[in-house]
Design a protein that fits this description.
By secondary structure, this protein is α+β, with helices and mostly antiparallel strands. The chain has three helices and seven strands; from the N terminus they run βααββββαββ. The chain is globular, with a radius of gyration of 14 Å. It starts with 6 loop residues before the first strand and ends in an 11-residue tail after the last strand.
């Protein structure tokens, strides 16, 4: 079987996020797993770190690649990142999910199309989707 090198990498800086949301590694970990599942990815493992006096990092290892968040609660800032290989999992859906729960005031996003030669940089349509289960 031949595998494609095609992948999409969405990186988002969010500003104006509630301090308490960004300073809770346990809550962020649960949301990140939900985000991975929302985009159809397969979660392999999860690592998280709560920093003192504040801040958190969560890394979700996916069969398709990864989803991560690094937070700076004192600045209301979170850096989100999702890279997926292949065409079956859309990383923008995971980012949409996280944006919908973090509710930032401002979002700056870029999408890289990778594995096709020259990197293509695009501006993704990141939305604040409603959470319906």
């Amino acid at each position: 079987m031949e595998y494609s090198t095609f992948g999409r990498h969405v990186a988002v800086d969010t500003w104006g996020v509630d301090f308490d949301l960004l300073n809770n590694a346990e809550w962020l970990q649960a949301q990140m797993v939900e985000a991975a599942e929302a985009c159809g990815a397969t979660v392999m493992s999860v690592q998280s770190k709560q920093f003192e006096p504040q801040g958190a990092t969560v890394l979700v290892l996916l069969s398709e690649s990864h989803l991560s968040i690094h937070t700076y609660p004192e600045k209301g800032f979170a850096a989100l990142d999702c890279y997926t290989c292949g065409e079956t999992v859309d990383p923008a859906l995971a980012i949409d999910y996280m944006v919908s729960v973090l509710k930032p005031e401002t979002i700056h996003a870029k999408k890289l199309v990778r594995g096709m030669g020259e990197l293509q940089v695009e501006t993704p349509d990141i939305q604040q989707v409603s959470l319906t289960k």
